[in-house]
Amino acid sequence: MTNAETQLAGYFAKYEPATAKLGKALRAKLRARLPGLFEIVYMYENQNALVISYSPTERGYEGVCSISLYPRSVKLGFGKGAQLSKSDPNKLLQGQGKTVRYVELNSVADFDRAEIEALIADAVKLAKLRLDPNAKGAVIIKAEEQKQRARRATKAARPAAKRRAKVSPKREDMKR
Hints:
Number of domains: 2
Order of helices and strands: HHEEEEHEHHEH
Radius of gyration: 21 Å
Number of helices: 6
Number of strands: 6
């Protein structure tokens, strides 16, 4: 198992066994359905959410589909879901965001439904992708990067506040 796979297994282990099992099964199905795409992994600690985006690039926001695990649900998301919802005759897509929509899945059988396959096929078509069945996609963990970005933002905010405190007395002196 690669380091990324080990990390991902650790993320899945944070969930109830049934949720983790469903998430792993859906991941396997999406990997088979979307060969060659990158799996971009995000762990949102504040929402207790694990998100795996399937993207033709190393940027998760360009993903065609995603799996989101929450403590009480698993969702199949679509990056261009708002556009897809126009051609969703069964009205399966949920959400009110500008772009993303999702379908809540309760079992692997839900994923195998013809309506879900049609949504995935439409998402691939909308992204103008040609999938290569022999291509291997890589797993990219972005969770650590997120933590570092959050720490940098916090550190950057502190000195700015200190600078303002130091600047204020000088401004007062200038006004006198």
